[in-house]
Amino acid sequence: MKILLRICSLMLVGSIFFNNNLHAQYQYPFQNPKLDVEKRIDNIISLLTPDEKITCLGTNPTIPRLGIKGSGHIEGLHGVALGGPGNWGRRKLVTTTTFPQSYGLAETWDTALIRKVAATEAYEARYIFQSEKYKTGALVVRAPNADIGRDPRWGRTEECYGEDAWFNGCMVQAYVKGLQGNDPKYWMTASLMKHFLANSNENDRVRSSSDFDERLFREYYSLPFRMGIEAGSRAYMAAYNKYNGIPMMVHPVLKNITVKEWGQNGIICTDGGALGLLWKEHKYYPDSAWAAAAAVKAGINQFLDRHTNPIKKALSDGLIKESDIDEVIRGDFRVMIKLGLLDPPEMVPYAAIKNGEEPWLGTKNKELVKEVTQKSIVLLKNENNFLPLDKNKIKSIVVIGPYANQVLLDWYSGTPPYTISSLEGIKNKLGNNVSVQWTTGKDADSVKALAGSADYVIMVVGNHTWCNAGWEQCPTPSDGKEAVDRKTIYLEQEELIKQVYRINPKTVVVLIASFPYAITWTQHNIPAIIHLTHNSQEEGTALADVLFGDYNPGGRLVQTWPRSMDQLPPMMDYNIRNGRTYMYFKGEPLYPFGYGLSYTTFAYSNFKLNSKTIKSNGEVTVSVDITNTDKRVGDEVAQLYIQHLHSVVDRPHKELKAFKRITLKQGEKKTIELKFKVNDLKYWDENLHRFVLEEDKIKLMVGSSSADIKFQDVVDVIK
């Protein structure tokens, strides 16, 4: 027994010696990466002065006195943004790989590809932040935008992934995972989602209220954010607007739902200037001190405002306590620790990203941009196989359009290392054997002469990404951007299309647009229409590849395109059941959700269900054979929709529950599986305040768009 006690005593002494020796390596306990994260944060907060704590309520919790290195924010919706039209005062421009707008990324319907895009962006953000050459930027990336495009008039439609909440959530998850990386302990960058919640009107956003019931909150507007948090995001930005009368940056749902239910424990920041809006525009508080105190108590831990004086006054007036600040800034340091900024560089796998050639100059990144841009292109019409054009049989082409010779960057774009415009891409493709001429379309005589003499006309039309105007200004009614909603969805350039078509009916319309257009006349008359979004540095290359048959388009729309404004409810009606989105749309759209054509044809066959009866813990699997029945390699996007036949609550006509994009060679057949969990059939019960599964009959529909169903069957759901 004495021997045993002696051994235990020696072990205890050894343990104390080891731990004391370990702590002796660090000046402060928080510097020890082996210490529990929350204990490290306890130590940090115990060392901070009141002024330093207030500093941490800004966007960069760096404390030089303690050797704490933090990170601020950068924009990054489709590439690192350290320049471009929305420069926001950044003086040093750094070129970075520039991908299509988020709306275009979504139109690939390829989550694996979107994850690669985000990972590429994250690598470049690390490189810029850590390299001796730059030492700028940040590691907290304001992306993705998890807002939903419920209305095509929304000025920031370009930033979202479309109108379907679940589909958006899938894209959000892919982008979050790409930005944050695969390491089990550290993040490459931190994904900060925008803008929680229901922020899809620009006009009056600083004072408006987005009003809807609890079911829509749970099932629609908050779903992409919840899915983002489930994927690992621990940062988001609160929106300017109110939700049911309460400004979002002080709304109880920040703590009660995102923190307590979903596990959000990192950064919750305001939007720029939002603190002042609480008392100036929303008239919700008497002054800035009351507003700042309420925001901190609601869970805000980073202000994109001059917050120091309001916070100090709130403290001196007793509106908040120092302990309230202690509670919220913990989230800032959780994120900094996950980024590895408080740990020795040799422990952080991403700390070595700082040497060698700039990644945006490499072939790998250029090829990825081209692939993504190709996959984002949607073929809207191709009458009698008008496309692709045979470049060996063409002698002359005229390109018409005011922006055909440039790549328009949007408000949150970076500065690409190069750009290839539509005109340049076409010229590069055709070489010296074909005459390619260009006119803006503003001079009628020039249009008449060039269009009349050319074999084909390629019209490049669409919106200007930042309206070619100052803040809150959009001279062209159909244009939109941040702070400005679109006044119309009609394309003003359609008049030019009509003129050209009368001169030369062998016309292709290329619609480069950030949102849907009601191009009804063009759809009825022009033989071929292509849609893609702005901003890709390889825009012209990808477009030319599609026009002349070197790439077979397979993109799909992520929003319902109406025929006219008459089909849209009032802009501020946030109840989507009143005719919004493909789920509740009334009438026939111009183009349905999920729509897109190909140069080849596909046959669906051999549909199989794993079961005709499914239980509460089950999974639905539909398998189907898809065959390329044409002579060209092509991509098909199989989509699975469901409909509740006897629900006790109002349900959508159709709901997307699974999708898969595949590539098939000539004559090739593949069997694919489309799956979803029975849990995804639940609705939010407003009486019980929880998701409920009901016994019901569910119609399953598989097809190539929401309006092109190839197969359907009914299954029984049993509790």
Strand count, sense and barrel status of the largest sheet are: 6 strands, mixed
Q: Would you tell me which CATH topology of the largest domain applies?
A: TIM Barrel
Helix content: 25-40%
Instruction: Count the beta strands.
Output: 25
Shape: globular
Number of domains: 3
CATH top level assignment of the largest domain? Alpha Beta
How many distinct helices? 20
How does the helix and strand content classify structurally? alpha/beta
Q: What is the CA-atom radius of gyration, in angstroms? A: 27 Å
Strand order of the largest sheet: 10-15-14-13-11-12
Superfamily (CATH H level) name of the largest domain: Glycoside hydrolase, family 3, N-terminal domain
Quote the beta fraction: 15-25%
* Architecture per CATH nomenclature, i.e. the level-2 architecture of the largest domain: Alpha-Beta Barrel
N-C termini distance: 60 Å
Secondary-structure blueprint:
Blueprint (H helix, E strand, L loop, with lengths): L1 H23 L12 H11 L2 H6 L17 E3 L26 H5 L4 H20 L9 E3 L22 H16 L9 E2 L1 E4 L12 E2 L3 H8 L1 H8 L4 E4 L3 E2 L2 E2 L5 H7 L7 E3 L4 H7 L7 H11 L9 H9 L5 H17 L24 H14 L1 E5 L13 E5 L21 H9 L4 E5 L4 H10 L2 E7 L31 H10 L3 E6 L7 H6 L2 E5 L6 H9 L33 H4 L17 E8 L3 E3 L3 E10 L5 E11 L10 E10 L4 E9 L5 E3 L4 E3 L3 E10 L2 E11 L1
Parallel strand pairs: 1-2, 2-3, 4-6, 5-7, 6-9, 11-12, 11-13, 13-14, 14-15, 17-25
Antiparallel strand pairs: 7-8, 10-15, 16-18, 18-21, 19-20, 19-24, 22-23, 24-25
Helix pairs in contact: 2-13, 5-6, 5-14, 6-8, 10-11, 11-12, 14-19, 15-19
